[in-house]
Structures are given as C-alpha cells and as structure tokens.
Design a protein that fits this description.
This protein has 655 residues and is mainly β. The chain is built from 4 helices and 47 strands.
Length: 655
C-alpha cells in the first residue's frame, strides 16, 4: 500500500462529489471490528519473537472482561474453519455498512517521544536549535509514518520504492548521502539514529548513525500486508492485514530469515460475529531503538469496522450498520461505539453504546475532560422523509451513556469535515453551499449551535490556526439551485472569536474546475507554520481558455492542465491569505493529471529547515529561500520512471 500515491474513489451526484469507496476498497478496508482490541488480546497471551526462538508468555489481567466482549480463542484449525463456514454471509454487505471508509488509527500521545535537535553554532554563548517542520500529525507526540521525514539536518525521502538519505542543511551543500533499495517502500519513520522502513510485506530497521552507510539491524517480513502504523516513543505499532479466503492461510512472521507461524489456537475472535468478509489482523510491536528486544505480535479474526480514536486513557472503536451507498437508508443506520480503558499497559473493557448515523472519519471523534464526542450524518442528501440527510453531535460520559445531543443540523446536507477543539466543535456540511457550524460543548449535557456561516464551496480538511481561527481547504462551488458544480481549490481563513457570528476573513481560489491538491485527501501534504506566517500546499493547476467559450464558460466546464508544483502563501489574521509565489519541478512541458496519471515532477510534500523551503517530488528535491522564494539548490533523484498518462479522471471526484 502506498498512501501517497493512492487516489480516492468518488462518485458524483449531479455534479456534487459523493464520499464513497469502491467495492474493491471495501474488501481491503473493511477489516476489523476492533483493530486496537488486538492489543487487548495480547494481554492474556503475548507472543514474543526473538532472534532465535518464539515463545509464549502469559500475563495476568483481571480487569479485562472477556464475558461481555465474547472474545475467545479457537481450540483448533478445524474450529476456525467451521466458524468461517457458519458465520460468513455474503449477502449482508448492505446491512453491515456497504462500502466501509478507511480505518483511521490514532494512538495516544507519549510525552517521552523526542527527536534529535541539531544546532546552529553560535558565538560561544550557546548554540541555537535549528527550526524545522515535522510531519503534520493529528495527535501531538505521536508520529505518523510518511514518505518524507526531516530531523533538522537530514532528509529521508521515499521515491519510487527506494529511500534516499540527503544531507539537506545547509541547502547550498545539499547532497545525496546514500540510497536504500529494497523495493516497494511504502513509508518510513526516523527515530534518532534509527530508520524504520515499512513495505507492503516487510519492516526493516536500519542503524543510520553513519548516514552514508546504513546498516540493516532487523529484517522482518510477513505473508500479510502492511496497513497502518504509529510510533510512540521508541515503539512502532504496526497493523497487518491478511484476508481470509476459502483456503485458510495463517499469518506468518519471519525475523532474520526464521519463520514463526501463528497457530490457530493463538487467534482470537468475537463470538457470533457474522460478516460478508473476514480478515486476520496482526498487531506487531517493534522497538526501533533496541535491536535485541523481542518483537511482540498477536492476531485476531475480525469483520467490518470503520473508525478508531485513542486518547491517553481510552480507546474508542466505531462500527456503522444499516447504511449502504447503493440504496436508500431507512433511518436505522447507527454507529456502535466500543470503549476500553488503558492504563500502564493494561486494557479494561468499559462498555459499548450506540448513536444514530455514521461518522466521517477520526476527526469526527474526540475525548475531552472525560467525555467522548462524536459527529454523525444520517440519511442521504438526495433522500426525503426519514431518508433525508441530517447531522448530529452526541456527547457520552465515561460509562458511554449519552448525556448530551444536538440533532437535525443542516437537513439535506452531510458532513464534509469536522474538527473538535477543546470545548467547541467545527463542522462543515455541504450540498450547495458550505455552512461552517460552531458548536458549543462547554456544557456536555447541552450541546448547542452558537453560530453558522454559509459561503460558496466546501472544506475537506480543517486545521487550527489558533484558538479563535480555523483554516479550511476544499473546493469552490457554483450554486445551481438543486445542486452545485465544484470549481477550483479554495483555501479559507475563518474567524471564530465571536462564535455566534463566524466570519470568513480571507479566502483564495486556485484555478478552475479540474484543479486538485494532494492536501485535500492527505493532511500530511499540508504545511503550516503560524510563527512563519507560512502555508504551502501541492497543486495541479487546471485553467479554462475562455476564448473557447464565446457565450460564457459553463460551470461544468473543465480546465486544461497548465501547471503543477507548490503554492506558497503568506497567512496571518491581520493580512489574511496572499500568494507569495509558486515553485515547480516541471520543465514547462505540462501533461494532463488524471485519476491514475503519474509524473515524477508532481510535488507531494513540503517542509522547511530554518529559512529554506524544501519541496519534494519523486524526481527532485528543490530548495528555495523562504524570504523571496529564489532557488538555492536542487537535487535530482536518480532512476525515476517516465510519466504515465491514463486520461483525465479526477483525483477528487468529478463527472
């Protein structure tokens, strides 16, 4: 899996983008009722893998309530096969949620995590730490794997299945130090002098204390496929998927060439879980800094799940039923929430609850001062009566009892983005215009709408600017009364200091219909620094030749691809949004950017070290002075393939 290259499937209803996934994605992404419950399954039995043996270590955990969860282990391979035969129902897809969205994993923050801080030599009074940007993550202190990492001195770049280590600062002397070519690299972590390389079927840990000569210290492979991971402190938590077909193939992990097969009697499952699809989920924990500490793994057989949110003290798992994209909903769709308490390495089942509707993603959930908040959508925008869309916010206490609710928000529209910030929630819904709702959650028992703002367009991603301002990035739209045509990429800065009267204080629209950005789908492509008044996003620009439309440009018209690169903005509350300049890696010969099109010149990430802006594509790393965007240096990454063009189909949906 390559998250940086994978486009998002969408359909469009009368020109309006619908957020659905195709049936193939459903088979790969509908994976587990609880991914992190796999952690809980390790507590009674933890399988540890060392360099020369595999053993089972039993731990006591009186707090875990197996009876309520109905979590069991198979007694034999025959029992596992019988269970699959009796509980698999291929006709229950629509009842179990139709096309399930991607599982989003967020692990709790760990204050022990730190990064090396390189310094700029001073005048003898003390060195100054280098100012550099890190991966844009959701939870502070929890690193997310990405295709680019920076430690303030070196860049680590995934390009065409390889990892390049770059001596990046000072920019004038930047050069490639080494290249790791192990094939099919998905993403990476850097933790001090260790580099963790994650591929479709392997995890490799390198000692990079000598950046010019990386040394492989751990070589782990598996017959499953890499799905998601997070790094907390020195530990990398890796989730593996292994689909269960007619012939059961048990998960197997290989460490330094020695295989360790998971026995059927080591696999946990939920009693009476009926689904149209099953998957072996393996959670593997690797200490990135300790080359001899045992690798821990455990496996669970599970079915469909949707989203996951983890706070420092609790795990919440959500599962939606009664919703299908191919039929009208009957008002019975609901999200089941499972809660587990986590403390000092133990996991205790707390309970479960149900709320109406479906959650969009992990940004639709949050825990604050002991309360769990979730935003959902019920119905469809084209529905009527009980099937008509509406949006809701629910507040649950520590025992998962609903103590507060706000229902019926924006009838006929659905949530496109959400962000919880302390005692407030911000929701963007969309059908024809972009209402930004400010929800007051100060009193958990009485959530209420403080204010709303209706403007053209919608936001796919909301990012805090500060406590009273929010950045939104999405698309501009043209209202056609019963629907809307989306247009170019829109960035907006909202002032919510007066929550009853939110205002759009600045906006900027890039290009015409057909313009896209990786940042619409991947927050890691979004670079923002309030201290530097800096906002950078990658853009594929489409522009309409108005001479081709003498009678006026219809809102359904697509522009032609004319440019790609990074748009660099100045952003501040006082000055709003202003374009500072553009940086491209292309040579001027533009090509159409379609659904599956690929060019090594597409900018995917951006970052800064001190006053130097680095933009990264598969084929190049370019360095520009942040003060005036003048080019300082560039490095071509060798061995990139030629562009692949498959025609125009939108990355972000379209007709």
């Amino acid at each position: 899996m390559k998250p940086n290259l994978r486009p998002r499937k969408s359909t469009v209803y009368q020109g309006r983008k619908m957020k659905t996934l195709d049936i193939v994605d459903r088979c790969w992404l509908a994976v587990v009722i609880i991914t992190v419950i796999a952690v809980a399954s390790f507590l009674p039995v933890v399988k540890t893998i060392s360099g020369n043996k595999a053993n089972v270590e039993r731990l006591e955990n009186s707090g875990y309530n197996y009876a309520e969860l109905s979590l069991k282990k198979f007694s034999s391979l025959e029992e596992l096969e019988n269970y699959l035969g009796q509980n698999t129902n291929y006709n229950r897809g629509e009842e179990l949620g139709g096309l399930a969205p991607t599982i989003n994993v967020t692990f709790a923050a760990d204050s022990s995590q730190d990064y090396p801080r390189y310094t700029i030599p001073g005048d003898g009074s003390g060195d100054t730490p280098i100012d550099f940007s890190k991966t844009n993550i959701q939870v502070e202190g929890v690193d997310e794997a990405d295709i680019v990492k920076c430690d303030g001195k070196y860049l680590y770049v995934v390009s065409t299945g390889r990892v390049f280590i770059i001596d990046a600062y000072p920019a004038e002397d930047a050069r490639i130090l080494s290249e790791i070519d192990v094939g099919d690299v998905s993403e990476i972590y850097v933790n001090g002098d260790k580099l963790v390389v994650l591929g479709f079927s392997y995890v490799k840990v390198y000692d990079i204390s000598d950046r010019e000569n990386p040394v492989l210290k751990r070589d782990v492979s598996f017959n499953s496929s890499y799905f998601k991971s997070r790094m907390i402190g020195s530990y990398v938590y890796i989730i593996l998927n292994s689909p269960v077909w007619s012939e059961v193939i048990l998960p197997c992990i290989s460490l330094n060439g020695e295989n360790y097969l998971t026995s059927a009697t080591e696999i946990y499952y939920f009693e009476n879980l009926v689904d149209c699809y099953y998957n072996f989920i393996t959670l593997m924990v690797v200490n990135a800094l300790d080359d001899v500490e045992n690798i821990t793994s455990g496996t669970i057989l599970a079915g469909t799940a949707q989203d996951l949110y983890v706070s420092p003290n609790s795990i919440y798992i959500t599962y939606t039923s009664g919703y299908s994209w191919w039929r009208w909903t009957d008002g019975t769709e609901k999200t089941t929430i499972y809660k587990l308490s986590i403390s000092n390495g133990t996991i205790e089942y707390v309970g479960k609850a149900e709320v109406p509707g479906r959650a969009l993603n992990q940004f639709s959930m949050d825990e604050y001062q002991g309360y769990f908040r979730i935003a959902t959508t019920t119905g469809e925008v084209w529905g009527w009566g009980d099937s008509r869309a509406q949006n809701n916010v629910y507040v649950l206490d520590e025992n998962l009892s609903i103590v507060g609710r706000l229902e019926g928000i924006a009838p006929g529209e659905e949530i496109y983005s959400a962000r919880f910030m302390g005692s407030r929630a911000y929701l963007v819904t969309f059908k024809k215009v972009d209402p930004l709702f400010v929800i007051d959650l100060t009193d958990p028992t009485n959530p209420r709408t403080l204010g709303e703002l209706e403007i053209p367009g919608y936001s796919d991603y909301l990012h805090p600017y500060d406590e009273t301002h929010v950045i939104g990035i999405g698309k501009d739209t043209v209202d056609m009364e019963s629907f809307a045509w989306y247009q170019g990429v829109k960035i907006a800065l909202f002032d919510v200091s007066d929550p009853e009267n939110p205002r759009e204080i600045s906006s900027y629209v890039i290009g015409d219909r057909g313009t896209n950005s990786y940042a619409l789908d991947d927050h890691r492509a979004f670079l923002f620094s309030r201290s530097k008044n800096l906002l950078v996003i990658p853009i594929s620009l489409a522009e309409i030749n108005k001479e081709q439309y003498p009678s006026g440009v219809p809102p359904s018209a697509y522009g032609e691809h004319t440019w790609d690169g990074a748009y660099v903005f100045n952003i501040s509350v006082e000055g709003g949004l202003s374009l500072k300049g553009r940086i491209t890696h292309s040579d001027g010969n533009t090509q159409p950017w379609g659904y599956w099109d690929y060019s090594p010149n597409y900018v995917k990430r951006s970052l800064y070290i001190e006053n130097v802006l680095y933009t990264i594509s598969d084929g190049m790393i370019k360095m520009n002075d942040l003060s005036n965007l003048s080019e300082i240096n560039s490095i071509e990454l060798p061995g990139v393939p030629a562009p692949l063009l498959f025609g125009r189909i939108e990355l972000n949906g379209g007709i």
